[in-house]
Amino acid sequence: MTNKRLIRLVSALALIALVLAGCQKPCPDCPTGTEAQALPYLRVDKALVRHEMTNLGYLTVGDGEPDTAQTEGSESLYVEGTVEAGDTAYLDGAEFTLGAAEKVLVDGATTANTGTAGLLDINAATITADVSAVNVAMTQNDGATAGEDAWGQIITLTGNDANGDVFGLKIEGAATTNAAAGTYEYLASLVCSENTAGACPDALLVTAGATDTSVTDGVDVSDSEIVNAINIGFNNIKGGDELFTIGATDDTVLLTRSESGAGTYTCADNDANAECVFAGGGTGKTSMGTTSNTSAQIYSDGTGDAELVVPNDSIGEAEINQGTSGQVLMSSATPATAWQSISGDVSLAGDGAATVTQINGAALGTTTATDTNILVADGTNWDSVTMSGDVTIANDGTASIASGVIVNDDVNTSAAIAYSKLAAMTAANILVGNVSNVATVVNPAGDVEFANDGTTSIEAGVIVNADINASAAISATKIADGTVTNAEFQYIGGLTSDAQTQIDGKEATITENSIGPDDVAVMHDDVVCCGQADESGTVFLGPALTLFGGGSSAITYTISAAGCDALGDATEATADAPLFTNVAFKVTGLYCKHSGTLGAGESITFTIRSAEADLTPSVYCIVGEGETDCRSLTGSTTDVAAGATIAVETEMTSDNADDDVWCRVYLALK
After folding, report:
1. Cβ-based neighbours of 146, under 8 Å, separated by 6 or more
2. What is the dihedral of CA 48, 49, 52, 55, to 10 degrees?
């Protein structure tokens, strides 16, 4: 059969229940016998459905296709059809009776299921006692073979993808507004009602399967919000070789260990009226208390003896067995603890007074405690003697070297004695050997003065000609106020007499009309550079060379004239040009103006350039808001070389369109 589709699980269960319920009701119109077996459909009383399902295909009972006659006694069920979203089936009840090897199969694996509500979604609500949403009753009938296992329910998890997590069983008490303490009495209840002892060896069995380490935590109750991880009441906890038994009352705890090795059991008496009592027994070792506690510590190895450690001052002398006078309680090498008499270098009296009679076997001689004496051995006895020689000692143990006894041989060659330990010296004085070859403190005098930081200075007026080296070559800038350079100073090298006298003599020889062209050092001139400035851009203004005989004299170079507009260009190499071929000059000033009006934040900067570079120093002026012209009285200090190009750069920050600009550059020809 083609184009078969699996219906949803809940629809299948509803349809099965409807069929079973319908088969139990009289059907006056249903065919009987072989006619019924050959029908491709089975009618169900509509009163039992209570809600019409659309697109229902057919439902048949038997082994073959819906259009095939079915053999009586067939036990398979075939369902085909769909239930539209939102359809609901209301059932009066349904029962299934299966054969010995039959089952009800819900297949959600052949086609991978994508639903999140559950393949079998059972919802129940009640206010009646003992109602259960799912009731599974598993009975193993009498006559089962020994070792036969029967399971009430098996959940098999198959994880075929390492990236996903598979969980076996989740029981969740939902959060509601009406729930209170004890609403969910327990999330899981395990009850063994059989009264036979050992009928249920384990109420809950956790195993690791085939791999020893596959289970990390058998039971994980590590959530910090849990009040009691495990509440065992007065029951036993068995773990390996140790059995922990809580007795019938809350003041008895039995701790039993049946293997070798240490087992530590701690009792914290956190109440003033509480008492921790450890009752030892058996042949193992029992200990009570720890060395850090103030209570007693008792060790027993089960052989009849014990070791006792008690806090200081907790046992009085009346509680200790007494020895003879002068004895002390100590352990021998056996070991055995007993009262022993003191012998050797020290003797002990019955009142506890100890006397040293010898040191390392040598008898004490004259040992009178004389002030500042020391105890010295003479090979036989120890005697009290007075220290003498270069060193003396006080009765507090302080030793001191006598004055004047240290000589050169007493000082180690690597002693590195600090200068701070020398005798005090006056500031800025130095040590100088005198005529007796003895280091003597002196104050330096003469042409040089010493400071206490080691710096020296030449006294004023002490330098004479003989003190200056013939090749000293003292710079002219160190003469007088330093304004005369070495080159200028050298100009006077050719003078044969007083310079002022020679100048005065020259003045009388100058007559009217005696200055010729060669006597003029500087000539002044100017050149016009003009064009149109670019809105918020840079334009270079070329020079009007016709004013220097470089073109037609009919061209006008006034602001806004056509002659001016032709001189400007956005490329500097196109706009600039040399003024003179054989004459160098300096720029002595700049005057510029424009034809428009600048508003707030607008400006034009004019800068003279030569050979596509600023002059030294830069010669420029700025027209600002509300202004129409500007000037600069700054001149260049370096020459514009003969044949070098010249232009004026304009940088405009304005929204004015192509303002006409004009500049006059002032020159000083060489």
Report:
1. none
2. -120
Find where tokens 């010296």 sit.
Answer: 425
Q: What average pLDDT does the segment 11-33 reach?
A: 48
Could you tell me the pTM of the whole model?
0.35
The rounded distance, in Å, linking the Cα atoms of 55 and 82 is 6
Sign of the four-CA dihedral 566, 568, 572, 577: positive
Give CA–CA dist 116/169, Å, rounded.
Answer: 15
**Has residue 235 got a pLDDT over 70?**
yes
Sequence-distant (≥ 6) Cβ neighbours of residue 119 within 8 angstroms:
9, 106, 108, 113
What is the Cα–Cα distance from 536 to 121, expressed in whole angstroms? 77
CA neighbours within 13 Å on the CB side: how many for 132? Answer: 5
Q: State the DSSP H helix or E strand holding residue 574, giving kind and residue range, or none if neither.
A: helix 572-575
Q: Is there a contact between 662 and 592 (Cβ–Cβ < 8 Å)?
A: yes
pLDDT of residue 643: 93
At which residue do the structure tokens 């068995």 appear? 238
Beta strands in 504-598 (DSSP E): 523-532, 538-541, 568-569, 577-578, 585-594
Beta bridge partners of 649: 540, 607
Delineate the domains of the chain, giving CATH numbers in brackets.
1-117 (no CATH), 520-669 (2.60.120)
Q: How far is it, in rounded angstroms, from Cα 345 to Cα 342?
A: 9
CB 243 within 8 A of CB 236: yes
The secondary structure of 26-77, three-state, reads CCCCCCCHHHHHHCCCCCCCHHHHCCCCCCEEEEEECCCCCCCCCCCCCCCE
For residue 186, give the nearest of 152, 139, 231 by alpha carbon: 231
Position 670, amino acid: K
Read off φ and ψ for residue 311, nearest 5 degrees: -65, 160
- pLDDT, tens digit, 9 for 90 and up, residues 544-603: 887 654 445 557 788 888 888 889 999 999 999 998 888 999 999 999 999 888 888 899
Distance between CA atoms of 8 and 106, rounded to whole angstroms?
Answer: 10
Radius of gyration over every alpha carbon of the chain, rounded to an integer in angstroms: 62
What the block records as the tokens of 318 is 């009346």
Give the integer Cα–Cα distance in Å for 395 and 400. 12
306: Cβ–Cβ under 8 A, 6 or more apart, which residues? 298, 299, 300
Find tokens 């990390």 and name the residue. 216
CA atoms of 29 and 223, how far apart (whole Å): 64
Cα separation, 538 vs 650, in Å, equals: 6
Three-state SS at 609: strand
What is the tens place of the pLDDT at every residue in 303-351? Answer: 555 666 666 666 666 667 777 776 777 776 666 777 777 777 777 776 7
Q: How many helices (H) and strands (E) does the chain have?
A: 7, 33
Backbone angles phi, psi at 22, to 5 degrees: -65, -35
Residue 9: its H or E element = helix 9-23
Residue 653 to residue 15: CA distance in whole angstroms: 87
Report the half-sphere exposure of 446 (CA within 13 A, side-chain side).
Answer: 4
Two structure tokens written together for 50? 């209570």
**What sign has the CA pseudo-torsion 413, 415, 420, 424?**
negative
Cα 479 to chain centroid distance, Å, stands at: 66
Q: Which residues contact 377 (CB under 8 A, 6 or more apart)?
A: 362, 383
Q: Residue 168 in contact with residue 154, Cβ under 8 Å? A: no
CA dihedral 611, 614, 620, 626 (to 10 degrees): 90
- pLDDT above 60 for 64: no
Determine how β-strand 448-450 pairs with β-strand 456-458. antiparallel
Tokens encoding 102: 């039959």
Contact predicate 560/591, CB 8 Å: no
